[in-house]
């Protein structure tokens, strides 16, 4: 009866295949008290392939665990977003009901609708401004710096390179 080797189960409880042992002939093939080069190379290749398989298996286990955690987090975030929508609806209904204590119900609903419309317009304009400011999504500064660096490495004299060199010199002093 074989006993379970401690390395056959990883910390998550998953079974891990142990590296294969050297073949019987590799263990017994001994010349002058030392294994031959072919035997040592075969043993090395076997151990290396077992190590690679174990590393791949470990990576798969780790990725599966992380994907599972991410999926759980996304489900909880979706539920929270849905509850937030309900919260907003109940909050607006409460505001309309509060205003309705002093005004007719239709007027309180109209006031809440007007406030929502104002908020939508303001957020829409801010979103449009942010999108146009960020478009197109090209790293212009990084491209400019890369061009300056390549020109400096080639030794081409460029006015912007000279400006950068002057700034570096003044910063250093």
Short description:
73% of the residues lie in helices and 2% in strands.
Model description:
Among the domains are: 8-74; 140-172, no CATH class. Helix content is 73%, strand content 2%. The chain contains 5 helices and 2 strands. It has helices spanning 24-28, 37-99, 105-134, 140-154, 159-172, and strands at residues 30-31, 34-35. The chain has a two-stranded antiparallel sheet. Strand 1 and strand 2 form a beta hairpin. The longest helix has 63 residues, at 37-99. The mean pLDDT is 80.
Assign the structural class, choosing from mainly alpha, mainly beta, alpha/beta, alpha+beta, or little secondary structure. mainly alpha
How much helicity do the residues have? over 70%
Described by strand count, sense and barrel closure, the largest sheet is: 2 strands, antiparallel
Low-confidence stretches: none
User: Which percent range describes the beta-strand content?
Assistant: under 5%
Q: End-to-end span in angstroms?
A: 77 Å
The strand order across the widest sheet is 1-2
CA-atom Rg in angstroms: 34 Å
Instruction: Give the rounded overall mean pLDDT.
Output: 80
The oligomerization state is single chain
Count of discrete alpha- or pi-helical segments spanning 4 or more residues: 5
* Helix/strand order, N-terminal first: HEEHHHH
- Total beta strands: 2
Shape: flat
